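As noted in the main text, all predictions were made from sequence alone. Below is one such record, for MIP family channel protein.
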Amino acid sequence: MSAHLSRRVLAELIGTALLVFFGAGSVVAAIIAGNGRLDYAALGFVGLTFGLVIAIAVYGFGTTSGAHINPAVSIALAAVRRFPWREVPAYIAAQLVGGVLGGLLIIAVFGPRATEIGGVGLTAVNPGASYGRGVVAELIGTFLLLLAIMALAVDRRAPPGPSGLVIGLAVATGIFVVGPITGGSFNPARTFGPYVANSIFGGVTPWRQFWVYVVGPVAGAVLAAFAYVAVARPVREVPAEAAQGAAGEIEGRRLPTGEVPTEAAQGTAGEIEGRRAPADPVERPDGPRDERG
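Prediction:
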């Protein structure tokens, strides 16, 4: 593994650990504050916490790794050629390890009783809903998340600035609606981490439901990515010499040291990778800017 990839993988691990600790940890905190209950008002604060920690991760690590912090995001971006498939396994491994670390940090803060208080903030399908409904709920919520990512973090036509906050709010919106059905995961690593931590410390973990939190998010993410490419930014409209984005979709030409123009395009970690395409035929090159999740 190259040093450059190692740094990005570490960013994914840290970002996912923060997501799980503060996001799933807010579930435990809400149940404690609610004397054992998680009502809809408390669910709103859980959704807001997820949204804010995702925004912080995006702003903190977006220029380093793209801040996917979600296996479904990495897979979807690779499926539409906005991220190299060869790096997907390393990203997913880092995200899963980060999720487990976040779950263990919840235990470190709240103690082993966190397994009895919301199962370390784990997600589970509502007993009154079928697994099929759970898959659909997770699919729709993740679709909204990837739509926000494609529109605000990948498309170069997006206005600068609000991407991290809006992506976080997309997750919060999904939790507000489908949280009562599945807990609103939209992220296999977010579910995996608390499941592992809860199992290690003797909690009852619904592992038989884990596939719901893999199939739903991955399917929703891939569908959203392809839908955005097909409807909002067809690949054929991007010139071959368009500036390279964080995913390395368009490779560009690496310039010799000392010959980097001031207008050169920026790569994943702020490194200059290639030249920006001229204004004609596309006035504003429309390539990937940052892959985030």
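The first helix runs from residue 3 to 33. The beta strands are 265-266, 272-274. These features were considered when defining construct boundaries for the mutagenesis experiments described in Section 2.9.
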